[in-house]
Design a protein that fits this description.
The protein has five helices and five strands. It has 153 residues and is an alpha+beta fold. It has a five-stranded antiparallel beta sheet. A hairpin with a 4-residue loop joins strand 1 and strand 2. Helix 3 packs antiparallel against helix 4. The chain starts with a strand and ends with a helix.
């Protein structure tokens, strides 16, 4: 997946903090029919902008417009984790509770969703420490030093 971003901050550790409109990240999504943020992003992520820390080995500077790439496998795995895991766990607990006492089956499904989001948070915390796989691949519009200096004041 690629997204057009703006460099918000250049970090000393060789990374940059970028901000992008979710629209540019979701343009190729099949759910994006009217040019707006897709319903899934709107419901689960809310804001139409996202911020990320990415590898800046290309040397982008403050306010540069850049292209950021994330491996497709990483995007697919994240989507599967967020959308499929809650369904699987909720379905399993629903089935178990149905056979124990059928009137408790809906409670099992709700408990499954809550447990799955707890699992997602734990996985997110563990993978957060790993090296970020997103990276700046191209500088689209390099801003002048005057614009950078005005922004830093």
């Amino acid at each position: 997946m690629t997204a057009k971003c703006t460099v918000k901050k250049v970090n000393k550790n060789g990374t940059a903090t970028v901000i992008a409109e979710r629209k540019s990240a979701c343009e190729a999504c099949h759910a994006n029919k009217d040019g707006k943020v897709c319903k899934a992003c709107d419901i689960f992520l809310g804001d139409d902008k996202f911020e990320a820390e990415v590898d800046n080995s290309i040397g982008a500077e403050l306010n540069d417009e850049v292209m950021v790439e994330s491996p497709s496998g990483h995007v697919i795995a994240t989507a599967a984790l967020i959308f499929i895991l809650p369904l699987v766990i909720a379905g399993m607990l629903y089935a178990v509770m149905y056979f124990v006492r059928s009137e408790y089956a809906p409670l099992g499904a709700v408990a499954g969703v809550i447990i799955s989001f707890a699992v997602i948070l734990v996985i997110e915390k563990k993978t957060e420490k790993k090296k970020n796989k997103m990276r700046i691949t191209k500088i689209l519009d390099k801003k002048t030093d005057g614009a950078n200096n005005a922004e830093q004041k």
